[in-house]
Amino acid sequence: MNKSSIYITILYNSALPPNQIQEVCAGLEEEGVPFLLQKWDKAGSFIELGKEAASRSPLEVGIGIDQNEDLCVHHDKLKQEEPYLQDKLQNGRTLGKNAARLIKGLPLSL
Tens digits of per-residue pLDDT, 12-71? Predict the structure, then answer.
């Protein structure tokens, strides 16, 4: 597996401009974990988007962000209704860092 095929998928509602999720991306970048941004045009909650993102990610971890600026970190092996972490977009950098730390096996950041 080459490095370009290892990433966390971020699925975000297409109503959100990509610049609104920059802090989530910055948190992942600070921890050195690559990501793939994908728009989601269908209706769905942040938890549904997170679960779908995790299923698309080679690392089995995904981030979902809905139009209400709610977001979560989900793992493909968790039940859909039980995401690993959830928060508001205003705390996106911390959530991004913690998604990366989940992959790296490090303690979560507060």
Answer: 999 998 788 999 999 999 999 999 999 999 889 999 999 999 999 999 999 999 999 999
Domains and CATH numbers, the chain: 3-104 (3.40.50.10150)
Q: For residues 78 and 56, what is the distance between their CA atoms, to the nearest angstrom?
A: 14
Q: The whole model's pTM is what?
A: 0.94
Q: Is 60 left (phi over 0), alpha (psi -120 to 50) or beta?
A: left
The backbone region for 76, taken as left when phi is positive above 0, alpha when psi lies in -120 to 50, beta otherwise, is alpha
Distance CA 65, CA 52 (A): 11
Return the structure tokens found at 37.
């941004």
